[in-house]
Amino acid sequence: MAISKSLVLWKPVCFLLFSISTYHSSAQYAVEPVTIQVDLSNEVGELLPIWSWWGYDEPNYTYMKDGQKLLSEIAKLSKVPVYVRAHSLLVTGEGTYGLKWGSTNAYTEDKKGRPIYDWTIVDRIFDTYIERGMKPFAQIGFMPQALSSKPEPYRHYWKPGAEYNDIYTGWAYPPKDYKKWAELVYQWVTHSVDRYGKEEVESWYWELWNEPNIGYWQGTTEEYIKLYDYSADAVKRALPTAKVGGPETTGPDWDKAEEFLRTFLDHVVSGKNYVTGKTGSPLDFISFHAKGSPKVVDGMVQMNIGTQLRDIDKGFEVVASYPTLKHLPILIGESDPEGCAACSEADYPHNAYRNGTMYAAYTAAAFARKYDLAKHHGVNLLGAITWGFEFEEQPWFAGFRDMATNGVDKPVLNTFRMFGMMEDQRVEVSQDNLSYDYVKVRDESVRGPAPDVNALASKSQKAATVMIWNYHDTNDLAVEDSPVKINIGGFPTDGRILLTHYRIDQEHSNSYTVWKEMGSPQNPTSEQMATLEEAGQLKLYGSPEWMDVKNKKLTISMKLPRQGISLLKLEW
């Protein structure tokens, strides 16, 4: 998980370095009505659940109280198995945890240098997933201390506000013995098959390392490629039908990430394999990251959704340029509004967006454009991992990038609940006077007077769902609500339908608002805790109602607040 490109700038002592923005509050402009057309008869492809993937730095949080609670909620919101990716699954330590740190002690050595394998903590992590119907996106990393070519110092004790480079200690270095490393990987996969069964492990994804083009890998590009060859060979020896991939670079539009990604893919296609001596390497999926870049402008958080989409666009472009690889599944291993999940609002003020509805609306708008970009490039997007889980023993609503705080769900998790309710077949959505399509959002972000008010729609044989969002890069909640008219056509027949309307805004599905109204307690009473837990769930916007479809058409009108999201579920 890379730090944001501008993260080092965003500390309170650096505010005077910000340039004066020419942005003016959108409250100065009249709010224009928006009319959205949904054509249920025009199918445009399967609405794959690319959102049903999560990840986080701290693996030991998995089986802690709030970690288990959140995993249960994430598992329940999806009708398909959710995949989970965690760092540090091979890091040395007795289950110790901290911000951006975790350990399993999977590998140590005796005094004679002979391997000792202990899967107790790794099993506890994976058991927690499997028990909930989830699946590991098994990250092979990081380097055990006994194998590290620079074992000291090994553990870091990073905290928000500290220098980010301080985290790159002994776990980030290449192995001193690649064959011992390969045997570790082989033993891990073999153990997993013995414990969970061949069929189960065949459904997992095994990927090597994290962001090897920056500090997470303290070796060269060629040393990473060598490590990949040894790792992929070990995985396939243990289970020939296992799925293995990489290279999990930072966003391909950032620095030299594209060069690293292309060098890796060139090797996979035509390089000499370090283990077999043959041409090429096994590759079952391709992974890279994509991040936005928020900042504070005139006292308000200003997002940059375009930066994240340009990362994705460049990654898709790179993959599409390899004819023999273009068909492979793409997994955006971390896909987020910015880089550092463990960086709180206290030290990085631009992270204030994470507690409220801005994160929720950004997520809806961004995922919709991921579908569009994949279709544009003709690539196979399988998943986009949200790198945000929960942080144990931290203050309430501290501005970490997480789905819940102290066991209470934040508004963003309700966006995923909406995604989980959507039907499987995507249908056409259009506007007569469209302000933002995926190209404009990619190239310009959402910075003009008008917000991005748009929709994603899908259907099944007897139901349809329409998700509508009102997003802007600047979190100006003082603007008027946007009048929205949704014209839905292409129903199979006339007659009565049941409309159920869900909403995320300042008054609905929003534990943060309720917490602030309580006086922002850091030690809520049991009664307050129950109220907050209830407020964190997805809420109805009024009661379900029956409506009449005439001439196979229906019109629904509403007012949608800035950074608000509605989900319309229609059943017939």
TrEMBL record:
InterPro entries: GH, GH39_cat, Glyco_hydro_39, Glycosyl_Hydrolase_39. Residues 1-26 form the signal peptide. Keywords: Glycosidase, Hydrolase, Signal. The keyword Glycoprotein does not apply. Residues 36-536 form the Glycosyl hydrolases family 39 N-terminal catalytic domain. The keyword Hydrolase applies. Pfam families: Glyco_hydro_39. SUPFAM superfamilies: (Trans)glycosidases, Glycosyl hydrolase domain. Belongs to the glycosyl hydrolase 39 family. This is Beta-xylosidase. It comes from Imperialibacter roseus.
